[in-house]
């Protein structure tokens, strides 16, 4: 953090682009390994989340509040990982590691809009599971279409407004050089280090915002899962108890990873003396959690797998019917004379 700067220099020079160092400080062999790894993660995440959206949309049995939230989460994860990973992949294969000033601004805005939205959406999903397990008889009356729509809308609107305020405050700071961002995307902590002015007020604002959008929603998640665990322990059959607990445990691990790494980064705004550790933390909530979503909600979900099999079977059946219709075209009987027009 810089407490003072040369105002004349700041006013006469303005950074037009930043250089994202990414993982360029890693050795070449490791970079050659990281590129295919990140490419595989990106493709798998896109395919997995697209599959969830497709199955939950086409299978009428999955038109429930849970899968309504899941479709929104899958769409959000596709956008979330697409904000950072393509640029990171580009830095591996090309020498161009620069990003325009306003491109950096747009990346930060999109990234934090999606991140904050996911915080509120995960809290809404935890509440949905709480009502479904702890109050099943009133589930569809409590989690009706209007309620679900309001919860999703509030999540997206809150994400946009909070991100807009943070992005505007960060990019209104003077940046007069250097322009090297020791990160793989435009994140708040490394950008604050580049500002040539006192940023203590910005650090406090980011910490307060981080507390509002991370620990508070996570508290609701903890409360919901605490009630869920208490309800699970009352289930009489071991099979039913293990099934529900296994599903909720995998959800909770993913949610805890997202909130925990995010809180450590933004509630504790100041970057550490080891930027590589900050990059690893960022990878956990920006790359790993979008990857876990399809693993948890599709590969481990019998309803999604059943819906996918049904859709594939319907497509195969439709494919076999089409040639049959063309091949059995009704021909005129040669023994019956045609009527003249």
UniProtKB/TrEMBL annotation:
Transmembrane helix is among the record's keywords: yes
InterPro entries: GPCR_Rhodpsn (IPR000276), GPCR_Rhodpsn_7TM (IPR017452), Olfact_rcpt (IPR000725)
Domain G-protein coupled receptors family 1 profile intervals: 48-297
One cellular-component annotation, GO: plasma membrane
Membrane topology, record value: Multi-pass membrane protein
Top-level taxon of the source organism: Eukaryota
Gene Ontology molecular function terms on file: G protein-coupled receptor activity; olfactory receptor activity
Ranges for region Disordered: 317-341
Coiled coil start-end: none
4Fe-4S in keyword set: no
Location in the cell: Cell membrane
Pfam families referenced in this protein's UniProt entry, alphabetically: 7tm_4
Entry keyword set: Cell membrane, G-protein coupled receptor, Membrane, Olfaction, Receptor, Sensory transduction, Transducer, Transmembrane, Transmembrane helix
TM spans (from-to): 32-56, 68-89, 101-127, 204-223, 244-268, 280-299
Family named by the database record: Belongs to the G-protein coupled receptor 1 family.
PANTHER family, A to Z: OLFACTORY RECEPTOR (PTHR26453)
Name of the protein in question: Olfactory receptor
Organism whose genome encodes this protein: Pyxicephalus adspersus (African bullfrog)
Source taxonomy: Eukaryota, Metazoa, Chordata, Craniata, Vertebrata
